[in-house]
Amino acid sequence: MTTNHNLRQPLIPPPEKAEKTDIERLCIDDMLQKYCGEFGKWQMKHFVLTCMAWALEAFHTMVMIFADKQPEFTCEPGFMECDVCGGEPGSWRWEGGGGVVSTVAEWGLVCGEKYKVGLVQALFFGGCMIGAGIFGHLSDSKLGRKGSLIVVCILNAIFGLLTSLSPNYLTYVVLRILTGFSTGGVGLCAFVLATEPVGPSKRGMAGMSTFYFFSGGIALLSGIAYIFQTWRSLYIASSVPSIIFVLVIILFISESPRWYLIRGQNDNAMKIMRAIAVTNGKYLPENVCVARDEEVNDNDQKSIEDRSKEVITGSIVDALKSPLTRIRLFLVVGINFTCSIVYYGLSLNVVNLETNLYINVLVNSVAEIPAYFLSAVLIDRFGRKPLGVGTQWFSGIFCLAGSFMGSKGIWKVVRMACGVWGIFGMAATYNLLFIYAMELFPTVVRNAALGCATQAAQLGAILAPFVVVLGGGLPFMIFGVCGIIGGFLTFYLPETLNKPLYDTMNGMVDGESEA
Questions:
Q1: Residue 88 CB neighbours (<10 A)
Q2: Last residue of a domain, which of 299, 328, 362?
Q3: How does the entry describe its membrane topology (predicted)?
Q4: 351 or 59: which carries more pLDDT confidence?
Q5: Same-domain pairing of 195 and 343
């Protein structure tokens, strides 16, 4: 039988070649909003795990309040009166375990040597200032956000444990400087890594929530310090969590897709974006690809392919060269400086309030939590700028009021209340400044700019211990003036509410000119 080969042919011939689907190029913010979800399960897990590093920073920073405290002393039998500074030798002794309680008791950092307490605390923040600049640059360049976070946490654990073995004051100072160096990069890297994968409409709330972990760390530290009463055991107890974070938690944290994008690793950026979509129960079409700001509306395919493989780098010099970012950087530096003097000054000033140290630290840390919640609720309603001005002036007014209160009877309690309200307002500002500064600069220089702002904050923190040792109402007066000045500086910053996170300097210039 003859087979009719024509029967094998379809009635309608197929097209010679299937039509190629058009590629849809989106920046990360648009992709999160349109396909992946702005804050779903993926971002929640990533955010919580990354922000645990903030508690570690609180441990290594605020441990000085307990380790460097001056213990109570009592008169030896046979002496009716005694004094640490002018008393007869052998007429007094430290309470609660003698010299092992704190560095002050062990190395005699009292009277003429009291300045050494403020000195080691100031040098710690000096180390933070250097570390913030270095790790801010490294997290924008070679190490990335996650890589930098791993390095600083490892260094924190090592230096913290070594500090507990310090044989003398000089060794203690060196190790605290080194701990400050690594601590300066912890919050910086954790904040950017936690918030960069969050969509624009949810970023304000997420960014304002990072400091819950810092305050929680301080509150937890007050409990740890109550259990571990000697300063050496306290340094060990506050350093072990950094080891746990590196060995366990960091394994479940992803690198920032924005960093991959500016480093020319678009495939890795897309892997994370697809993981976000899948975990959030969303669908990301195959024809959608991530692109930098200036590539989104570019129709030149060859130009896009060439630029997508290009590694975009930036430094603080680039931020200073651009008129748009230069003035922003100067203002952010000034605001961070004044804010830090107030925040760390009020935190350290608890030693002058003559109340229970553990309870006072706990109350201050708890007072910060509603400040974060309130500012998180208000940030997207009123914007970054009005909230920044209001919270700094709120803190400044209460600090000025506290400077006129006495230190006896009921006035001592009133001054403590003024300090709590002052730290309430400045805690909200300190939190706001991170999200505000993050939105003021593009990805390519974001961590470098934040690092510079953090350096300014650490410079303020360096001065804070010296303000605290002045005693009386003068520290409150200085804190109040700084709060008012910071509020005035904030007036000159632009509002960033509902503005996109730009990737490159050119993308920001083009975007701001169109706005």
A1: 11
A2: 299
A3: Multi-pass membrane protein
A4: 59
A5: no
